Amino acid sequence: MSERKAAVLEEFGAELKITSFPEVQPEAGAVVVDVSHAGICGTDTHLQQGKLPIPLPVVLGHEAVGRIRWLGDGVRTDATGAPLREGDLVSWASNIPCGSCFYCAQEDEPSLCETRKVYGINQSCARWPHLSGGWSEQIYLQPGSTIVRLPEGVTPEQVIALGCAGPTVAHAVLGIGKPREGDVVVVQGSGPVGLAAAMYATVAGAAKVIVVGGPANRLEVARAVGIGDVHVDIFAETDAETRLAKVLAETPNGRGADIVIEATGVPAAVAEGIDLTRRGGKYLVVGQYTDHGPTPLNPHLITRKQLQVMGSWAFSPKNHLEHVRSVPELVQRFDLSKLVTRYELGAVNEALADMRSGITLKPVLVSGAVS
């Protein structure tokens, strides 16, 4: 029986180890995929450090693209109804909601499902089928997975460039924030989620998108790719009041943005974001995925400005489909491949360190599954 290599987290705070697991044939309704591109997300750095409760050992990686090796009995089409065949390039939603709980069935918010299965996060590799994360040469997609064939003319690298940030932002920006044509949008944060938010706001018709983030190399990439109209470096503008004045000066009559999207993961950014939002505007918190603790803010401003303050958690399979379907339009406007830095699977710890330091914007582990 053939074996496949995978990057395994065995203990929190430790480096990942490359481990071999046996290939498995798919049961009915399942699919086995040879992984070609697997993204590294900021959340993965938090998972490695034990900041979110996950079972160990685990093959990390909740965003990936690959080529179908085997289809289980009964699998004939992808989530859109298109024919699915062995050899097809596919992407898949990282999570499988239960479909029957209060949040799935009554609220139609499967991203809030408390028992959903998540590849690369809550599926321990100690249990069969073992290969349940994207940082592997192969992954076993369980029955119920949302699998979609890549659109014609779209490359795996273009899809993985936004990894989980794309569907996360499709949920948050298009589904909850809903920018209107002509809006001025401020995005706090210049990581993958922040840049995805800026792109989706542009596609939705925003008149101006102001990106407030850093370090400088990330803003340089944003400029090169055409993401955002104005870029404010928080490491160059270290004084909060000066930074506030600079951003407000870019809004009509200095009144603030119609929508401000927080994508930093830094609690202190929330109070600043409220200051950046105009009266009657929207403040959308997307980046606080890991609990970094409380932060002081003045609730009077929420009342006085009559703000809509909203949060968005992760994404549903529907949002994953929305993102993949939107990639052809995104690549017409933005060179997504410039966001990616490639690493071999064996260099996973180097890629994680580079993600943590901000040296790279989107590290991607690659294999030979796609030439």
From TrEMBL:
Keywords: Metal-binding, Oxidoreductase, Zinc. Gene3D superfamilies: Medium-chain alcohol dehydrogenases, catalytic domain (3.90.180.10), NAD(P)-binding Rossmann-like Domain (3.40.50.720). InterPro entries: ADH-like_C, ADH-like_N, ADH_Zn_CS, ER, GroES-like_sf, NAD(P)-bd_dom_sf, Zn_alcohol_dh. Residues 13-365 form the Enoyl reductase (ER) domain. Its cofactor is Zn(2+). The keyword Oxidoreductase applies. PROSITE patterns: ADH_ZINC. SUPFAM superfamilies: GroES-like, NAD(P)-binding Rossmann-fold domains. Belongs to the zinc-containing alcohol dehydrogenase family. PANTHER family: L-THREONINE 3-DEHYDROGENASE. This is Zinc-binding dehydrogenase. It comes from Saccharopolyspora endophytica. The lineage of its organism: Bacteria, Bacillati, Actinomycetota, Actinomycetes, Pseudonocardiales.
